[in-house]
Amino acid sequence: MNQAGRTIKLFYGARRQKGYVILLSTFFALALTVSIVLTMSSLQFFRQKIANSSFGATQSYYAAEAGGEDALMRLRNKPDMSSGSYSFNIDSVIVNVAITDYIGSTRVIAVKADNKGTIKKLKIVYDLDKNGSSFYYGIQTGDGGLSMGNGSTINGNVFINGDITGSGTITNNAVVAGDDNEIKGTSNGNRMNIGGSALTESCINTNVGGDLTYVLGGTVNNCTVSGSTLGQSDLIPTKNLPIIQSQISSWKEEAAKGGIISGNYSISTNTTQELGPISITGNLVINNGATLLMKGTVYVVGNITMNNNASIKLSSFYGPLSGVILADGNVTINNNVVLQGSGQTGSYLMILSTSSSGTAIDVKNGIDGQVLYASNGGITLNSNSNSAKVHQITAAKTITLSNNLNLTYEVGMVHNFFNSGPGGSMKVTSWQEE
Predict the structure, then answer these.
(1) Is there a domain that residue 82 lies in?
(2) Is 434 a member of any domain?
(3) In this structure, are 180 and 97 located in the same domain?
(4) How confident is the model at residue 256 (pLDDT cuts 50, 70, 90)?
(5) Of 128, 137, 288, 309, which is the most exposed, with the fewest CB atoms less than 10 Å away?
(6) Greater confidence, 192 or 81?
(7) How far is CA 219 from CA 148, 204, 206, 277, in A?
(8) Which pLDDT belongs to residue 133?
(9) How does DSSP classify residue 104?
(10) 311: exposed, middle or buried (C-beta count within 10 Å: 0-12, 13-18, 19+)?
(11) Residue where a domain stops, chosen among 101, 129, 157
(12) Which of 86, 114, 129 is the last residue before a domain boundary?
């Protein structure tokens, strides 16, 4: 091949190579452009998804807030409403609200808002503000009534579904509900004394510092009344105890989920033991100076005995929430026992017995405690220390105060008959997103 032919061949070869380079460069440029477009589209998609998710979460959160406000409004309008749950919709958001029974003066509202899978939860603790303007009774019994020893005193109001008998003093008002029930002092000159007003079917051997309202057909005999004496035709309706059986069963199940201790269990003298949630199939003994620190619900199938200077306290993990230790047997509280909540406002410890004994809860020597509740039996308060203080006290059978015992309660349940005494309006002590 001559020189000219080689030159032409090299020329066309170079042009062909250059064409390949241009084609390859164009391909990479297109690929890069497509990649950028896809990346931007993906980013826009995810931004839109995040925005939609954020908007959905915001909708869900405000729907949960609305559920909490709705529950608070219901409780404000009807403080003694039963526990339970209900649901409603706000546009596409399903709101579920659950309201627990009282533990002491505290109720918990749990709210769950579901916006097509975007869920927000709230827990609200609702407690009594003792500086408020509404007033309450802190002592309630079933048909066993209230028995007051000579010289005993209750500082506050009482609501009794049975008789009030003995020769003590109730400093404020008293309601005796139900048919054929009465306020009756002893006949030997040691009369019953009601500092405020009384609402009862019959009144016998009693001093009433305010008004007496009785049921026509009942008996008013040897009653001294400082105010007016009024008769009414309607019987005085009884009130159910505030904690229903399903709630007690739920606490037992909650305890068992944490584990089961078979047989009897004791906490040694002057030691501290953490327990809960736990179920104990035998008896529980908290020995002298020992402390039970509860980290969850404790359920004892047998008896609970708290010996001298023993303590039961809720762990700080409870925060503003309350806790329960319950027994199917009897609960015996000996000298100088200390019962405490977590230390935060609205946190209380409830001692609950389901025993049907008249001494389901037996306080041997006064108490500075929290909440005493005998769902089927009675409560006895003895007078060795001459004083006792509780947050609330409730019994299905008789509450018995021995001679010269001075009992003070902090707060209680609402009833429109009471216009003075320990009490308060409701307030929110905790509002937290879970």
Answers:
(1) yes
(2) no
(3) no
(4) very high
(5) 288
(6) 192
(7) 21, 7, 12, 51
(8) 30
(9) T
(10) middle
(11) 129
(12) 129
Quote the tokens at residue 349: 């410890």
Structural domains of the chain, count:
2
Residue-wise pLDDT tens digits, 297-333? 999 999 999 999 999 999 998 887 888 999 999 999 9
Percent of the chain with pLDDT over 70: 77
In terms of Cα–Cα distance, which of 185, 137, 192 is closest to 161? 137
Identify whether residues 91 and 162 lie together within a single domain: no
Q: What is the mean pLDDT of the chain?
A: 82
Q: Is the pTM of this model over 0.70?
A: yes
Q: Are residues 151 and 106 in the same domain?
A: no
Instruction: Kindly report, residue by residue over 351-383, the tens digit of the pLDDT.
Output: 999 999 999 999 988 777 678 999 999 999 986
Q: Please check whether residues 194 and 50 belong to one and the same domain.
A: no
Q: What is the spatial distance between Cα 254 and Cα 276, in angstroms, rounded to a whole number?
A: 10
Per-residue buried b or exposed e for 26-60, using 16+ beta carbons within 10 Å of the residue's own CB: eeeeeeeeeeeeeeeeeeeeeeeeeeeeeebeebb
**Host domain of residue 219:** 136-424
Contact 319, 299 (CB under 8 A): no
Do 147 and 38 have their domain in common?
Answer: no
CB neighbours (10 Å) of residue 287? 17
Residue entry with tokens 């109730």 = 170
Cα 20 to chain center, whole Å? 80
Tell me how far apart the alpha carbons of residues 228 and 225 are, in angstroms, rounded to a whole number: 7
Do 214 and 83 share a structural domain?
Answer: no
SS3 category, 174:
strand
* DSSP secondary structure code for residue 404 in this structure: T
Q: How many CA atoms lie within 13 A of 339 on its CB side?
A: 28
User: Residue 335: its pLDDT value, please?
Assistant: 87
